[in-house]
Design a protein that fits this description.
alpha+beta, four-stranded antiparallel β-sheet
Length: 295
């Protein structure tokens, strides 16, 4: 009897040892993840098809579901009418395990009327687990691109960054809004120089007067609003004011978000204001109380 029990214990120990000794089961990579070339090809295909869920799965830290909605809009706008075709791709592998790579890519951009543009760019990649992923910019660096101090970025890296940081889109749109206000301020100051230094403008139709001085009418719309809306108002108290006779131009409102003297705090309880000296600020409700409207 004791010998049978001993034999049974030995069998159990051997079974446990076998289970413990087995290597952990690893999920095999999909065809799209297995090597960096496949990742690039699959990512471009997904972008062309507006399949941002699939594209995000190929990005380090890529989001999914409803979080991608704002990124979806931005990528579609950036793509425009173009589809992308990978013509050439090469890799420079780095790291002790050769698990980092820089992809050198030649893209061809094709539009609906057969215009073709060749575009060379690069994107960082990393092997994570069994597959490869595109490496996006950090959130801070990505926002910096649109604030004028973050350098530059290629198309695929930018798209990857949208998919990894969709929460940054609101900040990016705020930066663009401030850029619009800045351009409006420059246009108004240039206009005044042609009119004896006077803001010979009417608040209700200033876009018509500034049309030739603006880069395009798109700057009249805050990126947080629908196209076609005029997001910015001209301070009616500056109508026909002499630029050089404004007492505190750095404190005096020239353009603002809203209408009829009422500010619209659409940027996380802040609003964009362009002052008579041409500089712009994001203004809180508390700061708004100190603004000057009279020249």
């Amino acid at each position: 009897m004791l010998s049978k029990i001993a034999a049974l214990l030995v069998s159990v120990v051997c079974l446990v040892s076998t289970v413990v000794a087995q290597p952990p089961i690893q999920t095999p990579p999909t065809a799209a993840e297995a090597d960096p070339d496949s990742v690039i090809q699959a990512f471009v295909k997904a972008i062309n098809q507006n399949d941002f869920e699939s594209a995000a799965r190929l990005v380090q830290g890529g989001k999914k579901g409803e979080a991608l909605e704002m990124a979806r809009d931005e990528i579609q706008k950036a793509r425009g009418a173009y589809t992308y075709e990978v013509k050439e791709v090469s890799f420079k592998f780095e790291g002790q395990m050769q698990d980092f790579a820089t992809a050198l890519i030649r893209l061809r951009l094709n539009d609906a009327i057969d215009n073709r543009i060749t575009h060379d760019e690069r994107v960082k990649m990393q092997q994570i687990g069994n597959g490869w992923r595109l490496v996006p910019l950090s959130g801070e660096a990505f926002i910096g691109l649109f604030q004028g101090f973050g350098g530059d970025s290629d198309l695929l890296e930018r798209f990857a960054s949208y998919l990894a940081h969709p929460e940054a889109v609101a900040k990016i749109r705020t930066s663009r809004c401030m850029g619009h206000l800045k351009l409006l301020g420059i246009a108004a100051i240039q206009f005044s120089q042609d009119w004896d230094e006077k803001f010979a403008l009417k608040a209700q139709n200033y876009p018509e007067a500034l049309h030739l001085y603006m880069r395009n009418d798109a700057i009249l719309v805050c990126p947080l609003e629908d196209e076609g809306a005029n997001s910015y108002a001209f301070n009616a108290k500056l109508e026909n004011a002499n630029f050089f006779k404004i007492k505190q131009p750095e404190q005096t409102v020239m353009f603002y978000e809203g209408k009829d003297g009422q500010l619209d705090f659409r940027h996380d309880n802040r609003t964009g204001v362009c002052f008579a000296d041409g500089h712009v600020e994001l203004v809180t409700p508390e700061r708004a109380k100190t603004l000057k409207w009279e020249p």
